[in-house]
Amino acid sequence: MRYIWSLPNRVFHWGLVIFILIAYLSDDYLRLHIAVGIGVLSLVVFRILWGVLGIKYSDFKDWGKEPSHNKIASIVMGLILIDILLICITGLFSYFYNISEDIHEFFANSLYFLIALHLLGVSKEFLINKTNVFSIFNGYKKGEFESIKLNSFQKLISIILLTISFISPIVVFIFVDGNSDNYYELYEDD
Predict the structure, then answer these.
(1) What is the DSSP track for 49-101?
(2) Cys staple from 60: which of 29, 51, 53, 157, with CB 3.0 to 4.6 Å?
(3) Where do the Cytochrome b561 bacterial/Ni-hydrogenase domain residues begin and end (predicted)?
(4) Is 137 exposed, middle or buried (0-12, 13-18, 19+ CB in 10 A)?
């Protein structure tokens, strides 16, 4: 067994799953929806930085190569990250600048399709190719490839960025007024 998915990568993955689920379920509770959306945005920013810091198998240049993601999975994962960024940006614009939420909802709905493709690919890998898909839980995968090891800088950066990602929704929840339809309405009388 080789260690291929670092703890920060797995915390990102499962944190994103939980935050997206909460965002979906809190659609009618604006304050929580916005707070969790900021958490999602923070996690995606972390993942983009993590993808350029050179951590083997998590580095974007390793996508499409085994044991990372195959080419199709890499494309789907890239589209998921881009789509989530667009969801967050359009959500912030619809809240702060009172623009239509239709674009935000379009990207949210497209995310459900991309998540379904991801889960379909995971199922195919597990059921047909007999691939160990449980490595996203413990980090280990069978194969003849190099194990990863984080250096001190990577550990420090991941601790700082993931801490920000999980604290930012709490801070936003405390300071965002959930009684207004949007931020613009809060201050238009000033």
Answers:
(1) HHHHTT-TTTSGGGTTSTTS--HHHHHHHHHHHHHHHHHHHHHHHHHHS---S
(2) 51
(3) 5-138
(4) exposed
Say if residues 121 and 73 touch (Cβ distance below 8 Å).
yes
41-100 pLDDT per residue, tens: 999 999 999 999 878 888 888 887 777 778 888 899 999 999 999 999 999 998 888 787
Beta bridge partners of 2: 141
- What SS3 state is found at 2? strand
* E-assigned strand segments in the chain: 2-3, 140-141
Q: Report yes or no: 14 and 152 within 8 Å, Cβ to Cβ.
A: no
- Tokens describing residue 42: 């923070």
The owner of tokens 């959306």 is: 37
Q: Report d(CA 46, CA 129) in Å as an integer.
A: 31
Per-residue pLDDT reduced to its tens digit, 147-188: 899 999 999 999 999 999 999 999 999 987 765 555 444 444
Q: Are 15 and 157 in contact (CB under 8 A)?
A: no
